[in-house]
# Entry
Amino acid sequence: MSATCRLKAPGWNDRARRSLEKLIERGAGQGLPVVFDFDNTLISGDVGEATLAILAAEGRLTPANLSKTLCPVLQIPGKEKIAVDQCSDIMEYYEALLSPTAHGSDDPAPLANGYIWATQAMEGMTVAEVVAATARVIAVGQRGGHQQIEVTPGKTSYPAPRFREEMVELIAQLLLRKYEVWIVSASNVWSVRWMVLYGLNPLLRKQGVPKVLAPKHVIGVATLLTDRLERLYKDSVLLRKDSAYAAMHRKPLKAMYLTRHVQFPASVYSGKVACILDAIGRNPYLCAGDNPSDHPMMRISEHRLWIARLEKPKAQRATSTLIKQMGKAGWILQVCSETDGPRFLTSLDGARDRKRIDTESRQSAAILRRLDRQFLKRSSNRG
# Structure
């Protein structure tokens, strides 16, 4: 494709837009690998959480029918013990499992166990059931507005995932210029793969992309699978051996049941790096993420697109520290907000001008403004 790369979606800030256009042009036609996180990066919301939430809301997964050996009593520092059978729903237990361990801020991967548990909790279900739940989640998101998957009224709810227009455009431009695009997610791989094959790929085709993402380019958390003969299978091998399974046809998905046994490496924190090296075999040219759990794979990337969520000041502090450690070269910042509906912000002025802004967003905006000034200073010094 000879036309100059132009990102036209409305939410990009000018500096991010120009930086992405330049680096895309510079590496075009070379088959360079680009890696995207999925939840809250390519989409607003978390498809793994939303899928688990809808199964809980429908009564398919409850505190009573979860395996007790998978749900030990938790002692969260400074809080009462949490037993799953005393929770209003399984998502209350999941949220507790996402809390930091007794190590507090010394724990470099505080969310890892919760991410893995969200897949393990579905043991005994068929892959077809997981995918069908994901389809119901996406249907909720397509109703328009800022839809929520409500589990227990007034207690637990999760946003229905929707693709970010800007990120769909970015992937389309990369594929049109012969980049090798991969998705590496901490959500269960079947939900992410279904969203890519039947949600993202049709959107990419509408943008004129002839060769969309293949199933093997979607990496996520997987458990070993079993069939009625109690044989064990790996998702990554089934992808190569069974084209119907890879295409997510219902018949092979109905024949496979999730176990609780994790397939390694698991794509959480530094496990994402292991997955990248196993599947791709080289460092990414560009990597995009929104969470400190994406930092390990961003460390090994030449360029890094950080999706800065205003509602997550801890993530912005951690990323500010990482940028200081690594240096500003190769970083691209794009701010987004989930308040009053998910959207990219063309500038931080949008946050400043809002009449109603929560404390977390105000803290994040202050951190990002400091980073923004540093980037501007660096740009002017380089002339």
In short: Residues 379-383 have pLDDT under 50 and may be disordered.
